[in-house]
Amino acid sequence: MVDVQKLKQINLFIDLSDDELQAISEFCTIKEYTDGEVILYDVGEEVVRDLFLLIDGTIRVRKRVSKLRPWKRIDIKAIDNEVFGEVGWLLGTAPSAEVSSDGESKMLVVDGKKLFSLCEENDSIGNHIHYRIAAILALRVTYHTTLINE
Fold it and tell me: What's the topology of domain 28-149?
């Protein structure tokens, strides 16, 4: 369980009530990662429903377009770099990129299955979380579209 005041500092949870944050805090933990430690693997078919929210430090994101091509590091500093695992959480799929710690980092880990259930049970929370994640994904798509057009 994580203190509600900590959740109030996370963009994904801004504007949720204290009661809503308390419900979410019940299935959150804070985890520290060392340099190079992999947080999410882009390997295999294992579904990871958890959300990872960067609290402190820096992370690396690497993506492979296909299994036959080499890894490519993705510059996420110019876009919202707080939430990771959101695609797998939304779609119920394996991670779409590898995320690792670049130096020491601290993440808020949200039990994705429990959050998904809470979103289904509580329309207010569900709409809020889905809207925030949609906005993050839209910003990322816009950013990468701009890179392609340069």
Answer: Jelly Rolls (2.60.120)
Q: What residue ranges do the domains of the chain occupy?
A: 28-149
Q: How many CA atoms lie within 13 A of 67 on its CB side?
A: 2
pLDDT tens profile 131-143 = 999 988 888 788 7
Q: Which residues of the chain have pLDDT under 70?
A: 43-45, 64-81, 144, 147, 150
How many angstroms separate the CA atoms of 70 and 80, rounded? 25
Question: For the whole model, what pTM was predicted?
Answer: 0.84
